[in-house]
Amino acid sequence: MKVTKLSQDEALSITLRHQLLPQTQQRIDLYFSLPNEMGISPQTLDESNYFHSSIKTRSAYYSDKLHLPLVRSRFISAKKGEQDDYRVNLNLFSYQIKTALDIDIKQTLQHKDSDGFYPMAHELAEQSIGLLKKLRRNAPSDKKFKSYHENADNYLSWHVEQSFLKLLAKGPKTSENTEIREQLINLCRTENNYRDSNQFNSQITLDDPNRITNKMRLLQRLMEYGVVFTKDMRHLNRNLKRFVRGSVTAIIMAFVMTLVLNARSSFTEVTLVLVALLGVIYGLRETFKDDITQIIW
Predict the structure, then answer these.
(1) Are 187 and 130 contained in the same domain?
(2) DSSP E strands: which ranges in the chain?
(3) Are residues 146 and 250 in the same domain?
(4) Domain end: 230, 248, 265, which one?
(5) Which of 230, 247, 277 is the C-terminal boundary of a domain?
(6) Which residue from 43, 146, 60 is spatially nearest to 95, judged by alpha carbons?
(7) Residues 188 and 292 in one domain
(8) pLDDT digits 0-9 by tens, 245-297
(9) Residue 189 pLDDT grade (very low, low, confident, very high; cuts 50, 70, 90)
(10) Alpha carbons 262 and 259: distance in angstroms, whole number
(11) Is there a single domain that holds both residue 149 and residue 196?
(12) Number of domains within the chain
């Protein structure tokens, strides 16, 4: 994974993927070039309000070796380890499968010609089948872990089916490569029959598209437990803002008065140097007061 990757998410939104390196601090600067005809300026769109309302941050574990979480979860299941450890490792493996599949589907759809599209789609199908087999081959025997495994298996099976149906629907239409198209369709049928044979979803849920969609979204949220972390921004109300501003002013004024008293004790009379020193002290106060208040907010 690259350190920083910018991609289009939807029509008017972008996604910035950033790998956190083992450092104490990292900074990313974003610059937007907007036409003047849009009428967007610091007066119409405040930078702070845009940052808090339009930028959503999500953090997730990342590993460049997909098989490691599954191997560890299998070990924990065999040794009857902690329940949270197995769930987190299983969710991490499932999340990486979903993320990798979504990225590969988007890259495959960028091929407009059938010669590049179908071989890449066939390779993607083979990789997906292999990962699903690894997941199902290491099903836990312990009942308290089985529900987590079934939820992950149910969601990944449905997500793989929907992803390849989307791939076939948006891919190039041609009379050639019919064999690969049939293989992709058979993959979707196989996953659908697999869920039916294991009775992962009730018939009432399957008959209602809204119910099956809501259930899969719920399973996705359960799969992201312990893996994806969403930053919760809490805005200070008017009274808390006043309290923070007053506290910062009191702390800075106490520090400034200490410097002023030390300066007065060093100079017995009012001189030009004393006036200049007091001006520097009060200038520093005004400079750092807003910065400290913004950091606390």
Answers:
(1) yes
(2) 4-10, 13-18, 58-60, 228-230
(3) no
(4) 230
(5) 230
(6) 60
(7) no
(8) 778 778 877 877 787 777 667 666 656 776 777 777 777 777 766 666 666 55
(9) very high
(10) 5
(11) yes
(12) 3
Judge if 248 and 127 occupy the same domain.
Answer: no
Question: Do 147 and 287 share a domain, yes or no?
Answer: no
- Do the Cβ atoms of 293 and 244 come closer than 8 Å? yes
Token match 């106490």: residue? 254
Give Dmax (Cα) for the chain. Answer: 97
Angle between helix axes 83-109 and 143-170 (nearest 10 degrees) is 10
Dihedral sign computed on CA atoms, order 29, 92, 135, 149? negative
Residue 110 CB contacts under 8 Å (≥ 6 apart), including other chains: none
Nearest to 73 by CA among 273, 227, 194: 227
206 with 80, same domain? yes
CB atoms within 10 A of CB 171: 20
Do both 179 and 129 map to the same domain? yes
Question: What is the pTM for the complete model shown?
Answer: 0.60
Question: Region 117-122: what's the mean pLDDT?
Answer: 87
What's the domain range around 118?
A: 67-230
Give me the half-sphere count of Cα atoms (radius 13 Å) on the Cβ side of residue 194. 19
Helix pair angle (114-137, 67-79), 10° resolution: 10
Instruction: Decide if 62 contacts 79 (C-beta within 8 A).
Output: no
Cβ atoms of 118 and 180 closer than 8 Å = yes
Tell me the average pLDDT across 121-142.
Answer: 84
